[in-house]
Design a protein that fits this description.
alpha/beta; 8-stranded mixed β-sheet; 13 strands; elongated; disordered N terminus
């Protein structure tokens, strides 16, 4: 609640900021921080720092003086026992013998008030800021941090982690199995061979029907959730992995600063690779309030987005977490809506998938097709799957997760280049469901063929990795999922790859058989069944390509784009090219992350995709500030 008067406000200042009056900090800033803390239901120190009312280093220097403790701002002489992430989660670390104190503390939140109330009870300590402690720990044990980020999942759940054996052996085993199955079918008597063929056609038809059935749902069904009061909102962590993204840093920071969420309850971590000098240089002159944290991920292998996310996950302070990409511009109210829905939904719903929307659809034919593809996926298919509580391969951004569940699953698979789809499958295998979050995040699509191809190769390669990983024990996975769930998972993950690989041959064969040659007709019904199923599969296959995109475009209100949905069968020929190249790359370079450049969009449908300008104004020392 607001503080009514200056004198009353000063008399009621919480101890974690009251000592700052002796440091000359303006009364109005302290009163504002105290009022913000009451409104958000948090401590005043966090409200002060997260709002950018005081620099973090200046606050902790003042705290050290108030405690009569030395402040460490240079190299920290750590003693034995340093561990990641335990040291940083605890907020304290041992110092080497002969140092200024046995321990160094970087206290947060309400712990600060306890320290100020009884500084002698804890013995001699040194103080540093949380940011400096984290930077010092990362510098002291970079190999340990990198190892945790890359291999923690494999240590905890090796059966759910990407296999380290050469992929070519898995593909060879799969090829030999398929060859043996085909030879067996060829050796069967004609009636049995026909039965096997009809069964295969029926299976493919059932998988195709998943996409068509989604179209039958009139509109996305959402849970009505009243907004939560600020005091009831949980702390929300936002992870943003960045690699060679200097061009979009200003727009990204504007989008993150615009999030409608109490600053005291935001925990935004910008994850930058150690070798990415350009992005680090772009961030360096910007004065970020304490709710933003720039984390430099130590060098290591593989250099992938999920490895960077795993470096930030143990440090997440929120109960809920989301991931945004560098070019994302989420709806400002997205976090509030997600928090309200999570509060109403059962614990079994561990994730909410937001709607990804391509904003630069008018750049080229490729971006128009990409925009319609996304509309079909995120506005038609995913909401339908969520309503039916079926497995969903997540999008790589705007998926909102319960941190407790994510940590229990071991985070992301650092060796899977489509870590989002893999996480969606691991959630389903663990018995969790994914809900629909009807909130848009606009992002940029590649407008030229070569960048689009590299991105699509990575996606399809990752789906193949996910298929091989969770297909190592197919019966165990099937028992965990259940019948319909297995069919859905097969259709959306390996089915996507296989259909893309087979699409050109099937399309040419179908056109030649049904449009050029005369369709054979036999006197007996059973003799016509194979041809009838083939015709049905051809029609439903084309419908599954066109209709979700068409309906998604209509739901988005893109009347001018919807006619382009008729060109989706041509667009998927390009997807097939990417699928075959993905298969080659899966063998030759399974860990390669094909980087997509951002900040190149020429058009913006929403008017929200902004590439010019700088966030905030200038601070007194000439640094740019984020509000």
């Amino acid at each position: 609640m607001p503080v009514q008067g200056s004198s009353a406000g000063l008399a009621d200042l919480p101890p974690e900021i009251a000592f700052l009056r002796a440091e000359g900090i303006a009364d109005r800033l302290l009163i504002q921080a105290a009022a913000d803390a009451v409104q958000a239901g948090t401590d005043a120190a966090t409200a002060l720092l997260n709002a950018g009312l005081m620099a973090e280093a200046a606050y902790y220097r003042a705290l050290a003086r108030a405690l009569g403790a030395p402040y460490l701002d240079g190299p920290i002489p750590f003693g034995p026992g340093l561990r990641f992430p335990d040291t940083l989660v605890a907020g304290h670390a041992p110092l080497a013998p002969g140092s200024v104190a046995p321990w160094v503390l970087a206290p947060r939140g309400r712990i600060i008030a306890s320290l100020l109330g009884s500084p002698r009870r804890i013995g001699p300590i040194a103080i540093t800021s949380p940011t400096h402690l984290r930077e010092a720990v990362f510098a002291a044990i970079p190999v340990q941090v990198a190892d945790h980020a890359a291999h923690d999942l494999a240590r905890r759940a090796p059966e759910r982690a990407t296999a380290r054996e050469p992929t070519v052996w898995w593909l060879l085993v799969l090829a030999l199995t398929l060859t043996a199955a085909l030879c067996l079918c060829a050796a069967l008597p004609a009636p049995f061979a026909r039965m096997v063929a009809l069964s295969a056609q029926s299976l493919f038809l059932a998988m195709t029907v998943f996409r068509l059935a989604a179209v039958a749902i009139k509109a996305p069904v959402t849970v009505e959730a009243p907004p939560l009061a600020d005091t009831a909102l949980p702390v929300y962590t936002v992870l943003v992995p960045l690699y060679r993204e200097a061009a979009v840093v200003p727009a990204l920071l504007r989008a993150l600063a615009a999030l409608d969420y109490p600053p005291a309850k935001l925990d935004i971590k910008l994850l930058v690779e150690a070798g990415d000098r350009e992005t680090r240089a772009a961030l360096a002159p910007i004065a970020l309030p304490a709710r933003f944290e720039v984390i430099t991920v130590p060098p290591g292998s593989p250099r992938t987005k999920p490895r960077a996310l795993n470096a930030g996950l143990p440090l997440a302070r929120g109960d809920l977490l989301t991931v945004y990409d560098a070019e994302d511009d989420p709806d400002p109210g997205q976090l509030r809506l997600a928090a309200a829905l999570f509060a109403r939904l059962p614990e079994r719903t561990a994730c909410l998938q937001g709607r990804l929307v391509i904003d630069n659809a008018d750049d080229s034919w490729l971006t128009r097709a990409h925009a319609l593809e996304y509309a079909g996926l995120f506005d038609v298919l995913n909401p339908a799957l969520a309503r039916c509580r079926l497995p969903i391969p997540l999008g790589g951004t705007s998926m909102h997760l319960r941190v407790r569940v994510l940590r229990a699953l071991g985070g992301w698979d650092s060796y899977n280049v489509t870590e989002d789809a893999d996480l969606g499958m691991r959630l389903a295998l663990a018995g969790y469901t994914v809900g629909d979050l009807p909130s848009a995040t606009t992002e940029e699509a590649p407008s030229r063929f070569r960048p689009w191809l590299g991105q699509r190769i990575r996606w399809l390669k990752g789906l193949a990795q996910t298929s091989l990983t969770h297909g190592r024990s197919p019966l165990a996975s099937a028992r965990r999922l259940g019948g319909l769930e297995v069919l859905c998972a097969v259709a959306l993950v390996p089915g996507t790859v296989v259909s893309a690989l087979a699409y050109p041959a099937c399309l040419i064969g179908a056109i030649w058989s049904f449009l050029v040659l005369e369709i054979p007709a036999a006197p007996a019904f059973l003799d016509n069944l194979g041809t009838g199923l083939a015709l049905t599969l051809f029609g439903t296959g084309l419908g599954a390509l066109v209709l979700p995109a068409l309906i998604g475009g209509i739901r988005r209100g893109w009347g001018d784009l919807t006619p382009w949905a008729l060109g989706m069968p041509v667009y998927f020929l390009l997807v097939s090219v990417a699928a075959w190249l993905a298969l080659v790359e899966l063998v030759r370079a399974p860990e390669r992350w094909n980087k997509t450049r951002h900040g190149l969009a020429r058009t913006s449908r929403s008017g929200r995709l902004r590439r010019q300008g700088r966030p905030g104004g200038l601070t007194a020392d000439g640094k740019r500030a984020v509000p």
